[in-house]
Amino acid sequence: QLSQTPGPCSPIFLPSDDEWDWLLAKTWVRNADFYSHQLLTHLLRTHLFGEVFAIATLCHLPGCATYLFKLLMPHFHFTLHINTLARSVLINPGGLIDKGSGVTYEGLLLVVQRGLEQVTYTSLCLPDDIRHRGMSHVPNYHYRDDGMSLWEAIESFVTGIVTFYYGGDAAVSGDTELQAWVMDIFTNGFLGRALSASTPAAATGCVPSSLQTVAELIKFLTMVMFTCSAQHAAVNNGQYDLGAFVPNAPSSMRHPPPCEKGRAFLQHFLDTIPEVATTANILVALILLSSQLKDRRLLGQYPEEWFTEAEPRRLIRAFQGQLEEIRDRIEERNHLAELRYNYLNPLETENSISI
């Protein structure tokens, strides 16, 4: 159903309908998903939050004197740079999204604003999100399986680092720089809302404005690092693979949604999806977004060697060993699979949002 209001002009389309009616209805759904994915799942929930995390780190954590700075900075590599480029050519007035999609610049701002109102801490923490969405036991859900492996590896690494530097909960709650960092993220990232305005408190988790325990700190740091690495890889790296077939990710539709069945046909369908120039521009963007930088830094690679103590260096090696095991499992599965899922392979997952 292609309207929010059921009625005679909003039929329910079925697979048993005429071929062109069904294809057109599915393409309209994919058009809506294009906006949701690009503006919310991709832009808001990785790029913009990654920028919030980066700015808060630069403002409140005192450089290489703190372990938090050393831990987090590799996960912000090139993030401010790529977001600045996006604001100048992609999401700016007159930019690619403005010209090449059905969302104007003003519409883009409105969609992101509404999307931010729906963001919860639960939705940013993969184990909680999977449970909340009822996706724990769906078979062959590789995003969940590979993502959980990476979440657990990051969490294990973070646990080792945090427990090495903090003696207990009192050290966390008493760390004024840490508390200022979290408050900055809460204020400027989540606009000071502890809960989503439209979601009951019982159904979601609070966005923290402070961290009082070691366990809370470990979870928050894991969320930040996962968002900037694995989550971005999952929602970015397959964009060309899934969007090169235009009906699967049309950036705009040139006719209104159908109000009745039996009126769709080949030429009408071709006249509805984006024309050639728009298609070419969007595909170029998807190719660039899905490309790999020559100097990319994969998850677990720390060429700057911020940490000098023996224990953090051992933890990094253990983390890298876990990532190698995850890589081997994914590649073994893909070797036998008819449809490969490789977007969360550690060999394809960058430390940061750099493209």
UniProtKB/TrEMBL annotation:
Xref: SUPFAM superfamilies: Lipoxigenase (SSF48484)
InterPro entries, per database record: LipOase (IPR000907), LipOase_C (IPR013819), LipOase_C_sf (IPR036226)
Whichever gene encodes this chain, its name is Aloxe3_1
Q: Which GO terms describe its molecular function?
A: isomerase activity; metal ion binding; oxidoreductase activity, acting on single donors with incorporation of molecular oxygen, incorporation of two atoms of oxygen
Domain Lipoxygenase, chain residue ranges per copy: 1-355
Q: Which UniProt keywords apply?
A: Dioxygenase, Isomerase, Metal-binding, Oxidoreductase
Q: What PROSITE patterns does its record include?
A: LIPOXYGENASE_3
Entry annotated with the keyword Metal-binding? yes
Protein name from the UniProt record: LOXE3 isomerase
Would you kindly state one Gene Ontology biological process term found in this protein's UniProt entry? lipid oxidation
State a single Pfam family of this protein: Lipoxygenase
Entry keyword Chloroplast: no
